[in-house]
Hints:
The protein has about 475 residues and is of the alpha/beta class.
Amino acid sequence: xxxxxxxxxxxxxxxxxxxxxxxxxxxxxxxxxxxxxxxxxxxxxxxxxxxxxxxxxxxxxxxxxxxxxxxxxxxxxxxxxxxxxxxxxxxxxxxxxxxxxxxxxxxxxxxxxxxxxxxxxxxxxxxxxxxxxxxxxxxxxxxxxxxxxxxxxxxxxxxxxxxxxxxxxxxxxxxxxxxxxxxxxxxxxxxxxxxxxxxxxxxxxxxxxxxxxxxxxxxxxxxxxxxxxxxxxxxxxxxxxxxxxxxxxxxxxxxxxxxxxxxxxxxxxxxxxxxxxxxxxxxxxxxxxxxxxxxxxxxxxxxxxxxxxxxxxxxxxxxxxxxxxxxxxxxxxxxxxxxxxxxxxxxxxxxxxxxxxxxxxxxxxxxxxxxxxxxxxxxxxxxxxxxxxxxxxxxxxxxxxxxxxxxxxxxxxxxxxxxxxxxxxxxxxxxxxxxxxxxxxxxxxxxxxxxxxxxxxxxxxxxxxx
Length: 466
């Protein structure tokens, strides 16, 4: 198979360069939508649900109320002072009559407010960015994405969308603890069983996407060390589905600095057989040693690593090829960690031989998809066909799955790449691109295509369920 891929590199490389140079943005988007992309190794499930799908999930079962006005008692209401703060009916019932009057039933909003609610769940307007994302959007969603059945269905909807655009493997990040079914808090064991059963259903299997889960810990929580221990023990009990412990949350909150957890992680390695570790590191503005310190925690993969190039000694270490960086271009742009993507460290890492892969982070909140990450990379940094195959392979080589599963994923990837090269390497590539049932995201429409482009339908759509 390696010899076959080498042949593809040699025979298709010039054709891909031609496509990249001559295609219109719409044509290139179709080609990249059709591209086999390997895996998404950095995906927060709670932030991955497109608002249109979140609305569907939140109005199809439990009843929710959302804040649409601020009255005379607003400051005294026991909830964040946020428009479209959305709560379960049982929470709403516990509010005072004055506070309840500030909310309306989610499924009874008029079209204008429904549209505004969806916009409030994504970063899609000038001036929105890091603070809006961390301090406003997530609190609006808390009680929706606490619901275990909603998370399970959201995962499968994401698998369907990923499968449609050529992704074959996903690792979702979420905490397994203190989820709810209605107003009832469930433990991690019940949540694990619910997810396992949901992934065994025919619609989940039909996506063709292999899924694994990472247990998240909020790094600046006062009790984060205990949460790491709890999460590690949980992953060890459920290695069939859960594969890693991850530290999440703003790194510019100094209470979550990596070395805070060094002794805790060492103690976990004394207690348990090895698990792979993918940990956020270097997602900050200032130069520091967070990536180095995250490697000291035992990380095999670094989430983001945007300031890695400011630490020369660690950059040299990363060139050994033992550790991968999960790059999220759209996220880094929208949150201001790399507002000018042309200056993003991604091509420096890639071309220095640091294993990198593309990932979507919180794609529902970005209103973006995996194709957007590839489009940004290909158009800004003129990726070669060889580099594209390298990125796809990295996203599977560094997946936390058993060797036999990884071998199957890599074999499928190479067969899919061969078929892709055959489609676009023979005959008229424009005709091949025109046949692709591409579903561009809202992010793509805002940033990649000219206004009024006739190549795509007017509004973002989602593939029909199989």
